[in-house]
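Why should sequence recovery work at all? Because a backbone constrains its sequence more than one might expect. Tight turns favour small or flexible residues, buried strands favour hydrophobic ones, and helices have their own preferences. The token representation captures these environments compactly. In the example below, the structure is given first.
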């Protein structure tokens, strides 16, 4: 039985220096919970929002929402997992930056044999997000064109490959020419370096003046207005992140003026709250990875002790693909 495990904890919000590696209580799983020993943990931009206080969290709080490892114990009522099973998860409850933890079992998924732990840790939160963006947010059919910002990031490279596998034309944006090359290699039909070119004009040019059916925008403040201007009439704006800062309040009338646009602001955690839905989404994602349609690219690995450096790299736009922490 594990009493404590090395865990990254914050006692206050702030810069990367508030991330502290401590011994944190683990305990036994209660009803509907599992205890898992991590082999690898995923780094996500949402971890930055929690650390800085953009998304409120009760303090002190362990950090991290995604990991993979081996189930050590299961609580009463858990039937889809047993001790010794390999598993991976994305969870709304932080605590994944750790050697071991207890968490609700509903979001913990059996990891297929063909997927290793590092890949599992690098793909759950990001890949399930791509699943709901393409499958559960607005109808998108083969031949439709989607604009996807930060296309060379963790979520981005999975989105590029997902779109290619579904016959959807993805126009990506990224902050350097090298990142654009990476997005193209992973299935983006076009990629705009939005630090050099006006992406709104470029999207118009690429779509024969029409605009795109859907924008998936996780950059937020810096791209929001341009994203709306890249849509065709009746188009759908999916605003799902704030890497450059939160979107300022805007007038609903803007949507009418710009062509009866639609807008939604979804989060993964609503989509995976139900166990059956979460497990079904994970199976769809695993199938894409096992078939080779999607290859999870891990471009950065950090020991758990260097978690602050991992955050610095992510915030400085220095990472591509997924980043994992090794406990
Ligand atoms: P990424 O690996 O995509 O990293 C974020 C990227 O955003 C950067 O690499 C950078 O790419 C781009 N960016 C643009 N402007 C800035 C800025 N001012 N500061 C920092 N980065 C900037 O992260 P993730 O894959 O972890 O997540 C991608 C996005 O998706 C995040 O915004 C995240 O919050 C969101 N998300 C939302 C979910 C939801 O359900 N709502 C779930 C999962 C993720 P470049 O240099 O190419 O511009």
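From this structural description, the recovered sequence reads:
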């Amino acid at each position: 039985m594990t009493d404590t495990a090395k865990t990254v904890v914050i006692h206050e919000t702030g810069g990367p220096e508030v991330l502290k590696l401590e011994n944190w209580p683990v305990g036994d799983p209660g009803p509907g919970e599992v205890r898992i020993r991590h082999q690898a943990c995923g780094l996500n931009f949402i971890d930055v929002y929690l650390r800085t206080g953009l998304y409120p969290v009760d303090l002190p709080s362990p950090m991290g929402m995604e990991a993979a490892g081996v189930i050590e114990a299961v609580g009463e009522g858990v039937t889809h997992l047993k001790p010794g099973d390999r598993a991976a998860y994305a969870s709304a409850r932080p605590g994944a930056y750790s050697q071991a933890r207890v968490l609700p079992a509903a979001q913990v998924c059996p990891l297929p044999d063909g997927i290793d732990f590092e890949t599992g840790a690098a793909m759950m939160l990001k890949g399930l997000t791509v699943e709901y963006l393409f499958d559960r947010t607005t109808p998108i059919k083969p031949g439709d064109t989607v604009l996807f910002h930060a296309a060379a990031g963790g979520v981005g490279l999975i989105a590029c490959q997902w779109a290619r596998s579904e016959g959807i034309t993805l126009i990506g944006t990224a902050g350097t020419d090298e990142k654009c090359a990476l997005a193209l290699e992973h299935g983006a039909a076009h990629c705009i370096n939005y630090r050099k070119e006006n992406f709104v004009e470029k999207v118009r040019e690429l779509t024969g003046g029409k605009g795109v059916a859907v924008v998936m925008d996780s950059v937020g403040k810096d791209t929001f207005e341009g994203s709306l201007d890249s849509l065709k009439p009746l188009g759908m704006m999916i605003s799902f992140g704030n890497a450059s800062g939160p979107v300022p309040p805007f007038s609903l009338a803007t949507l009418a003026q710009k062509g009866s646009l639609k807008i939604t602001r979804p989060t993964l955690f609503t989509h995976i709250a139900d166990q059956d839905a979460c497990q079904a989404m994970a199976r769809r994602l695993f199938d894409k990875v096992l078939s080779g349609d999607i290859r999870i690219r891990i471009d950065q690995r950090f020991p758990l002790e260097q978690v602050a450096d991992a955050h610095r790299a992510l915030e400085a736009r220095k990472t591509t693909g997924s980043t994992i922490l090794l406990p």
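A few observations help interpret the result. The domain at 138-265 is CATH 3.40.50.720 (Rossmann fold).
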